[in-house]
Amino acid sequence: MHPRRWLALLASALLLVALGFGLGARFTSPNEIDVPVVDSVRPVFATAEMRSFAVAESVTGTFGAASTVEVAAFKPQGTERAVVDRVYVKVGDEVRPGKPLVAISGRPLIALVMDVPLSRSLTYGDRGPDVLKVSSALSQAGLLGGAPDQVYGPVLRQAVVDLYAAAGFTPPTAAEAGEAAAGAKTAAPLPAGSKIEISEIQPIRAGSRVAAVPSAGDLVEGSDKPLLTLSSGAGKVTARVPVNSRDSFAVGQRVTVQVPGAQDTAVTGKVVAVSAFHEAGESKSLPGYDATIVLDKAAGFDSGQSVRCTATVDESTKALGVPATAVREDSKGTFVQVAGSGAASTRVPVRIGAESDGWVAVTGEPLKAGDRVQVYP
User: Fold this and answer.
1) What is the rounded average pLDDT for all residues in the chain?
2) In terms of CATH architecture, what is 45-52+316-376?
3) What is the pTM of this model?
4) Ranges of each domain in the chain
C-alpha cells in the first residue's frame, strides 16, 4: 500500500474515534440516570375521644319454626271418594278467616278463628258455648249482622249463608237433624241450608300461615298424610347464654335477632323463659343457660337456621372510643398505634368493647382522650 493512502486511512480512523468520544460525553447511559426517591406513605391519625356507646351482648341461637297444626282430610257425606277439587291457598299465604282453604268432592273447608275445634255440628235452634264460639268467629270475620249469641237463630243463620256464599257454596242442609227430631211432638221444620257441619269448619289462630298444601286431584281418603299444614305464631329462638351474660338475657329482655352479617333480616323479640344451668353437652355446646326468645313477627328464617341474638343492656354508656380502623391485631393481641412527639408511633395494647357508628370503645393504659391514633395505613 502506498504510504500516503495508509496515512489517510489512519487519519480517518482517528477522526471516528474522536467523534465517538465526543458523542459519548453528550449522552448518558440508562444505568447512570438518577431516579428520584419516592417518599413513603404518610400515616393518617384520628383523635381518641369520650363517646356514648350502647352496651350490648350477643349470643348464637337456633331458630325454631312456629307451632304447626296438621289438618286431617274429610269425606263429605254422600260421596264415594274424597278427592281434592280445588286448592284456594298456597304455601306462605296468611290464612284469611271466613275464606275456604280447599274443596273436597264438592264441599269446602272454611277457616274460622277459634281457640278449639267444634265438638258437634250445629243446626238452627241449638244453644250453648259452641254456638257462641261460632257466632263470635263469624263476627270477627265481618259476617255477623248483630251481637254474638249462644242461640242459633236468624242472625247466625244469615251469617252462615253469607259465609258459604262468599266461598261459592251453599250450607249443608239440616235434613239429618230434622229427621232425628221427627219423633218430637213439638218438632218445628228447620230452615233449609242452616247446618254448620263440623267437618267443613277449620279452627285457626289469628295470623296463621299455610305451611303445606295438597294438589288438585289428590285422593285423600284413607291417607296417613295430613290434608294440609298450618303454622301459627312468629316462631322462636333458643340460645345458649354463658354464665357471665345471664343477666343480659333475663326474662322480659328485648332482643334483636338476625342472620349474621345480614342487617336486613333483623327482627325483634323478647326473652320469655330461661332454663336452669346446663353443663357442656356432647354436642360441644358451652355450659350456660338456654334462653327462649319469641319473635314479635314472622321472620324469613329457616327452621334450624343459626341466628345472632343481641341484647342491648345500656343505651348511653360513656367510654373512650377510637375509630374502628385504628384497632390492629397480631399474635401479641389487640392494640392501637399512638402518635408520639416525633415521627414514630407507640404501640398501646387495648381491650375492645361496644361498637357504634364506626367507633369502638377501648380500654388500655396509657391511652386517653385527646391522643392521636393511627388509622392509616
Assistant:
1) 83
2) Beta Barrel (2.40)
3) 0.53
4) 45-52+316-376, 56-65+234-314, 73-231
